[in-house]
Amino acid sequence: MLRDDHFLRREYGRTLIPVMFSVLAGTINTLIDSAFVAQRIGNDALAAVNMCGPLYQLICTFGSLLAGGASILSSGEAGRDDMESSRRYYHTALLLGLAVGALATAAGLFFCAPISLLLSQGGALSGYVYDYSLATFAGLIPVVIAYLPLYYLQLEGKGKEIMIMMGIVIGTDVVLDWVFLYLFDFGMAGAAAASVLSMAASCVYGFLALQEEHSAYRLDGRLLGFKGTWEILKYGSPAAVGNLMDAVRLFLLNSLILLTLGTKGAAVWAVLNSLSELSLCISSGVPQAAGPMIAVFHSVKENSGIRILMKLQLRTGMALTGLFTLALLVLHGSIQALFALPEPVFLPLFWLGLSLFPELLCSVWSSLFNSTDRILLSNLLVGLKRFFFPLAAALVLAACGGPFWLFLPLGGVLAVCCCAAVTAAVSRKSGKGGHCLSRFILLDDYLEREGLVLDFSIAPSEQNICDASDQIREFCIRNHMDQKGTNRIAMAIEEMLMVMKEENPEMKSVDLRAFALETVTGIRIRCAGDRYDPFERAKQQEDLRYLGVNMLRSMAGEISYSYTLGMNTLYLEFPRQLQDGRKKE
């Protein structure tokens, strides 16, 4: 038996669509506002919404910094079965979000006029930019903290609740945009108010969903504090750096395009940027759906699961990106009409579509490094892809008079090539030591090479469960465990899997991992379905079916159960006995 992708494919697929929609939280409102503003006010107002893009991205930087960092840390702690620390990171991020949001709101309202002049470069669009910015600053707090329920509902495996949050964002924004622009004629301020009010409504629902009975992240005033702030900022830095680089890049590109292509080019760029932001549901959503699972697996050195998730991300992401690009090209006429553009946009959309493929690769890479404690490498990749190479390509093409929109795919391709070279160099350098890293994804396969771990998957039939028991028995013998203890462990695991199969009919596939370290041998069992802790159930019911469960309880040195990301995880650790019966010291 080998580790297959059946279990993870199911769990990843169940999470992917809700997470893709959750990524739209920071982008869908701008796209909706752009369409309403273009139709109601005109192309100048459309360009002004795009000029406010850096401001909105800067606000989202705070949210993604706190929620992204906290969720990765919470995932790792959950993987180590330390739910108290996992919850503490959530509460720290919430308190930080409220504090930062309040301070940023006050500063933004006070400095709104000079900020608007800076964004519009003091041009004719300053009035539009000021109105939009003022309303955005007024509703900044819910925009910042809305990321927390989105990320933590994912950790809870609550995909339906995430979809409802996004339904609230989209539906409320569309309705309020129509009311504020057409019914009351509030202009740019009305469009911005529609965005922040829809985010506030979604945020309220998200936090209420986290208050349900079995939620691990219910609000607990005792855990509120600033403990762990530095770790949250560290692990959230790649997402924050990405948003910050996007904001600076967008500001500089707005200036360059306005200077090079005029207001018509700026309007086209506003549409391309809005569609590029919309595509983030793929390029960011695909890795974000896998990121917490990778963090869980990395915390227990489960490299086989990480590799499966990398393949799933690339297969799924490439297919979705291809479909999105095809849709852009087929609907180019409709896009031109929706945004009231005076010129065809097929060629700019073609270059945009090509750029999405290297964008996906860079996002998957960056998310992997962020989840596996390679923060510096993740930040480097984000900076190259989001800032340095796109700007360099745009400047060169503007200077030499080449096809300007070619800078979109060219910057991504250069970033991919650079990252491939860096990871190859790191891998070669690590080969000089005993723990050489795999190429490109930089995983340490020492345990696998030494035969100290056994990863495999089974469909939970009676025959497969018996075969799994035999595999665990053989693994223990190969690692010099004593025969009597080995047989008892294998038999007890077999009986426990039988009980789990009977009690959890949704369990279609089980991932098992056995490992033998210096002083302990352990087994980790993962399966999908409803919450089910056989050890807790055995305490509540005196039943012969739980004989194997109770036997494992008496043999194990440590037992734990957790339900994270919609997965039941059982962990059992046994003192390691040598074949001569001596306990390993």
Automatic annotation (TrEMBL):
Chain ranges passing through the membrane: 12-32, 55-73, 94-117, 129-150, 162-184, 190-210, 250-272, 278-297, 318-339, 345-368, 375-398, 404-426
Pfam families: MatE
GO terms for cellular component: plasma membrane
Gene Ontology molecular function, alphabetical: antiporter activity; xenobiotic transmembrane transporter activity
Major subcellular site: membrane
Topology term for the membrane: Multi-pass membrane protein
Keywords: Cell membrane, Membrane, Transmembrane, Transmembrane helix, Transport
Taxonomy, superkingdom: Bacteria
Subcellular location: Cell membrane
PANTHER family listed in its UniProt record: MULTIDRUG RESISTANCE PROTEIN NORM-RELATED, MULTIDRUG RESISTANCE PROTEIN YPNP-RELATED
Protein's UniProt name: Multidrug export protein MepA
UniProt organism field: Candidatus Eisenbergiella pullistercoris
